[in-house]
Amino acid sequence: MNLQNMRGFTAVMPAALASLLPSVALADELNTGDTAWILTSTVLVLFMTIPGLALFYGGLVRSKNVLSVLMQCFAITCVVSIMWLVFVYGLAFGDGGSMNKWIGNFDQLMLGGIARDSMSGTIPETVFSMFQLTFAIITPALIVGAFAERMKFSAMLWFSAIWLVVVYAPVTHWVWGGGWLSDMGLLDFAGGTVVHVNAGVAALVAAIVLGPRKGFGRTPMPPHNLTMTVIGAGMLWVGWFGFNAGSALAANGDAGMAMLVTHISAAAGSLAWMAMEWIRHGKPSVLGIVTGMVAGLGTITPASGYVGPAGALIIGLTAGVVCYSATAFLKHTLKIDDSLDVFPVHGMGGILGTLLAGVFVGILGGVGLAEGMTMGGQVWVQFVGVAVTFVYCGVLSWIILKLVDAVIGLRVGEDEETQGLDIVLHDETGYNL
């Protein structure tokens, strides 16, 4: 082979060899690693609701109401899933157009247009839709803790279904569906506003509208099975890795960092709550340490994609102290019976985490501010996101509750509440002893 032929051979060989290798995936091509991770994350987030949240809440109520809580979580999972299929996915993630940044559309009724090969970034749109469905499931399920032991099952179903459409779907579109809060630059990696502020505010309004449980403040109402609660808490901790790290929507460094900071904040929140309780009451409790864990997890959620380990440590410690104090203030000072502390833990955690995402981004290992954004400017955007979500969710939740109350009534009777919702509403008991 002469020199000229050798040069030609050398020039052609790289292209020939490249044709034998897998092509590099473009943005709209399937990435099997990303897909496998989001499939796994989807399972983890669903695992958070049933059985995780169901067991966590179930152990916290009295034994005569344990089945009612499990039933509510299970039923919400089923109702939200069907509604998501029919039209809610389109409302949350459909393209509302350049002139409409407030809500999606009805172009994907019955998930029409989503085929086996439809893509959302590097993953199938079927996987993206299913992943987002698990967030839509757990958000109204969290609210259950506020009205546990006193709301009618039928009222719970109607409230949850209407709330999903008029509160959850619009806020999701604003933040994650290309809406106006997204355009402002709101940092909410995995659901500080969409999930935790939304659920917490709705819970607070529900607790106020329904009023306290019979005997609240006079009769002790301790958890009936803390063993069940700890098991559920452990499931929540594990499932939360899918919740936060899965929100990277890829198997990459963002997912890895989100998982790391999620774990650190959970541990810090547990220890901070335990310390507060130890100082105030002289003994640390099992209920306190698992509640602190949930506070740490909820608070790091919006910031999990934007802070490093040091930021996560501070966020977790702050969450334990602030959420513990909020719980005491709500129940003992304001006398509001948020039965299972949804607003102090999730609402306050979501507010705190969303604001701290703006504070810590760019420092303590954060990923840095968006181009052209100042620290004060980012905090202001975070504040606007929290304030708007708080007001919108609060007003709409109040209207929905009043509407349902006027039509079918919200609350069981006093005698039925005394007897327990398991027997009254479901004709079953959790324990046959």
Question: What would you say this structure looks like, in words?
Answer:
The protein is mostly helical and 433 residues long. 68% of the residues lie in helices and 1% in strands. The chain has a single domain (28-426), classed as Ammonium transporter fold. The chain has 15 helices and 2 strands. Strand 1 (119-120) and strand 2 form a beta hairpin. The chain is globular, with a radius of gyration of 24 Å. Residues 1-27 have low confidence and may be disordered.
Number of helices: 15
By secondary-structure content and strand pairing, the structural class works out as mainly alpha
Number of domains: 1
CATH class: Mainly Alpha
- What is the number of strand segments? 2
Shape: globular
Strand-residue proportion: under 5%
**Rg result:** 24 Å
> What is the H/E string?
HHHEEHHHHHHHHHHHH
Q: Into which percent range does the helicity of residues fall?
A: 55-70%
CATH level 4 superfamily: Ammonium transporter AmtB like domains
Question: What is the annotated CATH architecture?
Answer: Orthogonal Bundle
Largest sheet: 2 strands, antiparallel
In the predicted model, the low-confidence regions spanning at least 5 consecutive residues are 1-27
Overall residue-averaged pLDDT value: 91
Topology:
Layout: H1 3-19, H2 32-60, H3 66-93, E1 119-120, E2 123-124, H4 125-143, H5 153-176, H6 180-184, H7 192-210, H8 226-245, H9 253-281, H10 286-300, H11 309-333, H12 342-360, H13 375-407, H14 414-419, H15 421-426
Antiparallel strand pairs: 1-2
Notable traits:
433 residues, mainly alpha, Ammonium transporter fold, two-stranded antiparallel sheet, 68% helix, globular
